[in-house]
Amino acid sequence: MTVAFIGLLILVIMVKTLQILGFVLAVISTGLIANRLGFTFSKNEKATLSTNVAVGFIWLIAISQLVLVPMVMYNLSVTVATIVWWIIFLAIIVLSFIFCRNEFKDLFLGTANGVKTFFVEKRCGGVYGILATALIALQLIGSLALYHYDDDDAIYVTTVASNLQSNHFLRIYGQTGEETSLWSMSEYLTNGWYDFLTVVANSTRIHPATLMHFVLPVILLALSYTVYYVLAKLVIKKEEQRYLFFVFLSIVNILNNVSTHTSSSVLLMRIHQGKAMFANIVVPVMFCIFYVMWEEYENKKLVWMLVSANMCACAFTTSGLVFGAILTVVYGVLIAVNKRKFSLCFLTALTVMPNVIYGAIYIIQRNLEVWS
């Protein structure tokens, strides 16, 4: 009996792991398609695993926002939304295997060679490389024990759980458990991150509390450091200095846990929440795009990367909708003035159209809620 139970437990863990890997494959495939189309950070950079994952995740969330929010507004069920989401991303996975076979091969060989160089040949970046790896590993382990239950944690878990229970999005107010209308949930209507988490939980059949406190912290924290690694590769040319940067960043994050609202605290304890995702993933991605735009300001495909980043900002948090637009406009105008290329101001205006549209929906919705 004990052996059968252990065997069943191992089988369940394997199935859940494969389901999570399905989402990882969707991220990688989306990144490969985006890179093939030129919708990435730099037209001159060969796609590495880190760049591919960063770009793929941004595009995956942007597409999910574009697909799921209208489905929520049309009051379609969670089951229908999950099926449609998977049809779209299975199509992307199939297309990536058809058109990006060589890129898959290069990605695999490049990653294998990087792992061999780092571990087998013991070229670990010296003391800084070993220390950075140890500190990041410590944070990954600590993220499983440091989640906390205050602030927005309850609303995320209960909203996703209520969505699954009712099989509809935003029909039950997570903080009170009372039934409500979709249009009275204006604060969450344009935030596709809730919808994406619901699709993930519905696909994997993992309880939202387990998903957000045990599965996602490690994955999203690793993703955040992956994005910072992409930024470090762009800005810092010497490998040893990159590792020193990660040592400094890790120490700041570990020691800056002085309240529940610092960027370090939300990274280590609340990474599954939208504000943390915006601060620790979207903002560094935007800095990557702006850094490349400074040199490749005539690369019009970078505009699409900015659009996807702003879509993510809208998906994660309403404040990200505002701050993402401000960050884009400030840097866009700065680059336009510096390069004497004032057509960039028009392109910058186009990149914040998602923020304008979702902002208008939010304002109209909020006023309707007040008047009703």
Calculate Rg over CA atoms.
21 Å
Q: Please bin the fraction of helical residues.
A: over 70%
First-residue to last-residue Cα separation:
59 Å
SSE succession: HHHHHHHHHHHHHHHH
Q: What structural category arises from helix and sheet content?
A: mainly alpha
Low-confidence stretches: none
- How many DSSP E strands? 0
**Count of discrete alpha- or pi-helical segments spanning 4 or more residues:** 16
Q: Shape from CA axes?
A: globular
Largest sheet: none
Q: Round the mean pLDDT to the nearest integer and report it.
A: 83
Q: Please state roughly what percent of the residues sit in beta strands, choosing from under 5%, 5-15%, 15-25%, 25-35%, 35-45% or over 45%.
A: under 5%
Question: How do you describe this structure in short?
Answer:
By secondary structure, the protein is mainly α. It has helices spanning 2-37, 49-73, 78-99, 101-120, 126-142, 153-166, 186-189, 192-204, 208-235, 239-255, 263-269, 274-295, 301-316, 318-339, 343-351, 353-371.
Q: Would you give an account of this structure?
A:
- The chain is mainly α and 372 residues long.
- It has 16 helices and no strands.
- The chain has helices spanning 2-37, 49-73, 78-99, 101-120, 126-142, 153-166, 186-189, 192-204, 208-235, 239-255, 263-269, 274-295, 301-316, 318-339, 343-351, 353-371.
- It is globular.
- 38% of the residues are buried.
- The mean pLDDT is 83.
